[in-house]
Design the sequence.
């Protein structure tokens, strides 16, 4: 198991109950593969539908159970975990490849393109980066197809063929669905095949949390709509098909007074010393250092941030098991120094990431609200 985590952080449960364990566990449950090394066990079924709700952390679902009576009724006190960082691009790729972040190489919202001073934005994707080269491993969806399983993704049309889709979900059939009714109908159609795996995604709760915060009435209303969507999906599926509802991460609200802007605040002037590039995201920063500056950068960030964040060198973070086993190609994509926020703290760069500075809800760090995800079976 991973080393003990500081400051109430949750260690990623790689190989036990993490996002990377979901597809292998489904393979066993539908009889496509023998029991493997994953510690996750799911009920047997003819087929599975996996409904991923972006941003619906297990702690949030417990806290706001009144707004989601159907989904909260499925809580069993045994959540899974996201990987590190707890962010969409990393999590979706862990699910689709059955690999840890250190294996698949999507190590955050933004990360350095090795040999350059440019960042890969894993959601928008850089046109000059080939997703098949960035993530060359066989996906879990491809592996399932080779075993005779019918694998289908039901998602918005705009995501088909995107860099992140190619990196994380290649090998699956695609059903374009921009509306709830289309998604449900597509999932029912795809799961009619025996020995099938159907994956559908809803990003509206995450968008609402980023825009308004998880303490907002808008977020609670959206959670209620997700709950109704999930229950309607369950009712539309035949009894032989299991529904598994999961999330990619949770979220916290970060008020303005809990943020430090590296581009504006007087105390941050020293934080740029020795830095070649600032990456990651507000709750989990990758710091890429100039030659020989790693120790000084780590010391400065520790001094300035104090108890507001855990600051580790790359080697220290790897030693704590944050990214799982790290392949040589992935190593330089990780920050020389990484910064994981505590509480509701966030490191903002209003010049480098202006859109991020406008968000209310954030995620990426290792707090329980961000890391713990539901694994709900019906």
Sequence:
């Amino acid at each position: 198991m991973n080393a003990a985590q500081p400051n109430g952080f949750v260690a990623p449960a790689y190989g036990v109950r993490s996002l990377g364990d979901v597809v292998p566990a489904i393979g066993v449950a539908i009889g496509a593969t023998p029991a493997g090394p994953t510690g996750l066990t799911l009920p047997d079924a003819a087929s599975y539908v996996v409904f991923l709700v972006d941003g619906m952390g297990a702690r949030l679902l417990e806290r706001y159970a009144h707004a989601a009576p159907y989904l909260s009724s499925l809580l069993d006190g045994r959540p899974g975990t996201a990987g590190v960082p707890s962010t969409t691009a990393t999590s979706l790729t862990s699910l689709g490849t059955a690999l840890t972040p250190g294996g698949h190489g999507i190590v955050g919202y933004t990360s350095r393109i090795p040999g350059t001073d440019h960042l890969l934005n894993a959601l928008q994707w850089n046109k000059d980066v080939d997703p098949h080269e960035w993530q060359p491993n066989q996906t879990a969806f491809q592996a399932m197809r080779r075993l005779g399983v019918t694998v289908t993704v039901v998602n918005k049309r705009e995501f088909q063929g995107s860099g992140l889709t190619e990196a994380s979900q290649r090998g699956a059939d695609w059903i374009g669905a921009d509306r709830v009714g289309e998604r449900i109908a597509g999932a029912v159609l795809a799961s009619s095949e025996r020995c099938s795996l159907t994956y559908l995604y809803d990003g509206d709760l995450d968008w609402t949390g980023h825009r308004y915060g998880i303490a907002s009435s808008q977020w609670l209303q959206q959670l209620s709509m997700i709950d109704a969507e999930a229950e309607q999906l369950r009712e539309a599926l035949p009894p032989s098909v299991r529904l598994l509802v999961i999330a990619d991460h949770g979220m916290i609200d970060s008020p303005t007074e809990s943020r430090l802007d590296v581009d504006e605040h007087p105390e941050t002037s020293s934080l740029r010393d020795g830095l070649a590039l600032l990456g990651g995201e507000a709750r989990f920063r990758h710091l890429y250092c100039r030659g020989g500056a790693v120790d000084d950068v780590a010391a400065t960030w520790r001094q300035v941030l104090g108890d507001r964040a855990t600051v580790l060198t790359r080697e220290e973070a790897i030693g704590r098991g944050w990214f799982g086993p790290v392949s040589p190609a992935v190593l330089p994509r990780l920050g020389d120094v990484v910064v994981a926020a505590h509480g509701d703290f966030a490191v903002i760069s209003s010049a480098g990431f202006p859109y991020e500075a406008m968000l209310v809800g954030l995620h990426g760090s290792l707090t329980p609200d961000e890391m713990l995800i539901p694994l709900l079976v019906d």
In short: The chain has a mean pLDDT of 95. The radius of gyration is 20 Å. Residues 256-362 form a domain with the Gyrase A; domain 2 fold (CATH 3.30.1360.180). DSSP finds 14 helices and 18 strands in the chain.
